[in-house]
Structures are given as structure tokens and as C-alpha cells.
Write a structure and sequence with these properties.
It is a single chain. The chain is built from three helices and nine strands. The chain is an alpha+beta fold and about 190 residues long. It has one domain (about 15-190). Strands 1, 2, 3, 4, 5, 6, 7, 8 and 9 form a nine-stranded antiparallel beta sheet that branches.
Length: about 190
């Protein structure tokens, strides 16, 4: 399937960087006789593909020249990477959006709230080890269309498989929010 030719509104260059980084790590671990490479990408992802429900009444965010969603991934041997990101807009407040998604994210474990890359409240990491920001040795760093330091996020999952609901609160007008699912190789798969 051909790669989309337009940039993605939700999570562009950092996502490609992450994909290429993992591709390089996976290539270095692939065996010559068992080498198998698969790649997919499209710009028609949905909230359901991110493992989350669609927010009632929300619509896909439209920005001329940019896609509002991406579903991409690759596998090399037994290592794989997957990213699903969708940007929506609603007239509801960020607080209502977070209240809705906090319940859905709880199905994936502890829900960590992050503001400008820092934890909100007493929880600084989920029991599975997911944090608000990338630290040395973390497998992936996700940044939104705007810099993640301006995002307010809810995160759930583990460091190698997690979901994010992000709102850039510096925007005026309707609430624009992104739903993200990221799956990366575990440390022992990438080495």
C-alpha cells in the first residue's frame, strides 16, 4: 500500500523518526535466513483502531494539507512497531473529554495524567512502568502536532504498548484532541 503524500496533523516527524529508529534496531537483529519485512501505512484510522471509543458528537479535525489520522506499522522478523493516531474536534470542554476517556483508558491499567510532560497528582508512573515523558532507555517518545510540552494528556498501558488521549490546551475555540495507540518492540525483541 502506498504511503500517504501529505503530512499528518496529529503526530508527524517524531513518529517517522521513531519508526525508523525501531526499523534500524530490528534490522540489526534480523537473521539472514529468516528475514521478513512488512510495512503498512494509511491515513484513514479511527478511534476504534486506537482501541478507544469515539467521543460522542466529535468529528475528525480537518486541516487543509494535513491528514487527521494515521495508521502505520512495520514488522521485521518477530519485532514490530504500530502507531494509530486520530485527531478529533468537539465543542465540549477538555475536562468533559478527559472524563469520558478516563473510563475507557482504565481498561488498559492505571491512568496517568500528564501536563506539559509532568505527572499531575501523586502517581508518577503506572504499575506497568509507563511515565509522562521519555527518559533515557524508554522505548519511545511521542510528541503531538504541537510540542508535547503544551499538551495535557491521559496515558494508560505499558512502556511498549500504550494509549494516549492528548489535548493541546493552548488552542482557542473548540477542543481539539488526539487519540494515540503505540506498540513497540520490548527491549529483548529490539536487541
Amino acid at each position: 500500500m502506498p504511503l500517504p503524500s501529505r503530512p499528518f496533523t496529529a503526530f508527524a516527524c517524531p513518529v517517522l523518526f521513531v519508526a525508523l529508529t525501531f526499523c534500524g534496531a530490528a534490522f540489526s537483529s534480523a537473521q539472514d535466513s529468516d528475514f521478513n519485512l512488512g510495512l503498512h501505512a494509511n491515513s484513514h484510522a479511527t478511534a476504534a483502531q486506537a482501541g478507544l471509543p469515539a467521543y460522542p458528537g466529535a468529528t475528525l479535525y480537518k486541516d487543509p494539507g494535513h491528514d487527521s489520522s494515521v495508521d502505520m506499522g512495520f514488522n521485521v522478523g518477530e519485532s514490530s512497531f504500530k502507531l494509530v493516531a486520530v485527531t478529533y474536534v468537539t465543542g465540549d470542554t477538555p475536562a468533559r473529554v478527559f472524563a469520558f476517556y478516563r473510563k475507557s483508558l482504565a481498561h488498559y491499567g492505571d491512568v496517568l495524567e500528564c501536563d506539559h510532560g509532568k505527572p499531575v497528582g501523586a502517581m508518577t508512573a503506572t504499575r506497568a512502568g509507563l511515565t509522562c515523558s521519555s527518559q533515557t532507555g524508554d522505548p519511545v517518545q511521542v510528541k503531538s502536532h504541537a510540542n508535547s510540552s503544551s499538551d495535557h494528556e491521559l496515558r494508560a498501558g505499558a512502556p511498549n504498548r500504550f494509549r494516549i488521549v492528548a489535548i493541546n490546551e493552548s488552542q482557542t475555540g473548540p477542543t481539539r484532541f488526539g487519540l494515540v495507540y503505540v506498540e513497540v518492540p520490548r527491549d529483548n525483541e529490539a536487541k
